[in-house]
Write a structure and sequence with these properties.
With about 350 residues, the protein is an alpha/beta fold. The chain is built from eleven helices and ten strands. It has helices at about 30-35, 45-50, 65-85, 95, 120-125, 155-170, 175-180, 185, 195-205, 215, 285-290, and strands at about 40, 55, 105-110, 135, 225-245, 245-260, 270-285, 295-305, 330-335, 345-350. A hairpin with a 2-residue loop joins strand 5 (about 225-245) and strand 6 (about 245-260). The longest helix has 22 residues, at about 65-85.
Length: about 350
């Protein structure tokens, strides 16, 4: 007798013992059947259509799944966007290639016509000078009313004006800059394209219209003069102009009045006033606006009382109370007036000095 799983006639001769089928472990699942290249015709097909017992199936069309198709589309879209942004830079290719213009500077010493007026305290001098109504420190550098330009927004104009004010404060009012012990506060606001010129000016000053530290900063000879009053008087204005679609320009015209005394002098020593008028032109591209930095491209400075014989490129060496200088140069120049000086050395007008 055969087992329960054996055929009635018993196990065929040569077949596996116990009725084990050698193909029993092969599983013909649905995917296996669909992938078969040959397909047996059904009995009905063979009877009605005289179809062959076996026919070859057409090859399967393996397409991308919906998720894979979406992923490919996203990758192509991102790649196309990257190419587009590279071709059309949001700030324009020409702007990115514009070179930084070097600073052009003129420093005009103003020589007094007689003895430099002095007093026992700074307040007396200020009260009897054209600076009597000036504001103190940064208050004398107010921001004007802000309006957008054709290609620069209100916020960009404000950024430019604020950066220029910061530069004026750091280069004209910081005590460590005035006594020539530091230059970094102002340097930190300059466009990187001007740093080499700035550093060369400080390290190797030359009165060549390009490399005078006094074109960048107000700084006094520390062996000659020091501040007698930290409340520096200031007056001036700022103006913003768009020079082209890629450039914003700020014009600054400010007069700074310092109370000075001889270095190391006692508190009761005579005090005198020293006036510096700075007419500066700053330029900004969009990188400068984003980085809170600027390009100082024109610096026109009138300063006195100075002696025309002194080199004003590296430091300003003031003539102090009671000192005199040789007369010379053209008619008196008044740094408080709005007209510009026309000489490399001028004479300080008596109207610019305190009446004490």
């Amino acid at each position: 007798m055969g087992g329960p799983g054996d055929p009635p006639e018993g196990t065929p001769e040569g077949g596996p013992v116990g009725g084990e089928d050698e193909y029993r472990s092969v599983v013909f699942d649905e995917s296996f059947v669909r992938a078969a290249r040959l397909q047996e015709s059904s009995a009905r097909e063979r009877m009605t259509d005289h179809a062959p017992a076996v026919r070859r199936r057409p090859p399967l069309r393996r397409g991308l799944t919906r998720q894979a198709l979406v992923l490919v589309m996203l990758i192509l879209a991102a790649f196309g966007t990257a190419i587009y942004m590279g071709v059309r830079h949001p700030y324009g290719t020409d702007e990115a290639l514009q070179p930084v213009e070097p600073l052009r500077m003129t420093v005009v010493p103003l020589s007094p016509q007689g003895k430099v007026p002095g007093a026992a305290d700074a307040e007396t001098l200020y009260a009897h000078s054209p600076a009597a109504e000036y504001e103190v420190g940064a208050e004398g550098i107010p921001l004007p009313a802000v309006h957008s330009t054709a290609h620069f927004s209100d916020s960009q104009v404000v950024t430019a004006l604020t950066t220029v004010k910061d530069y004026l404060v750091r280069s004209s009012l910081y005590p460590e800059v005035l006594d020539s012990s530091e230059v970094r506060p102002a340097r930190a606001l300059l466009d990187p394209g001007q740093l080499d010129q700035f550093d060369q000016s400080v390290d190797h000053p030359v009165a060549d219209g390009r490399h005078a530290p006094t074109g960048w900063l107000v700084r006094f000879d520390p062996t000659r003069a020091e501040l007698a009053d930290p409340r520096i008087r200031v007056q001036g204005d700022l103006r913003a102009t768009e020079t082209d679609p890629a450039t914003l320009e700020i014009s600054a015209d400010h007069t700074f009045v310092y109370a000075l005394r001889p270095t190391g002098a006692p508190v009761g020593a005579q005090v005198s006033l020293f006036t510096v008028r700075r007419e500066l032109t700053f330029r900004f591209d969009r990188d400068d606006l984003r980085e809170h930095q600027t390009q100082l491209v024109v610096s026109y400075v009138q300063a006195g009382p100075l002696s025309c014989a002194e080199d004003a490129a590296d430091h300003l060496s003031p003539l102090l109370a009671g000192q005199t200088a040789k007369a010379g140069g053209p008619a008196g120049t008044n740094p408080f007036a709005t007209d510009g000086a026309t000489a490399l050395c001028g004479t300080l007008a008596t109207a610019a000095e305190p009446k004490v």
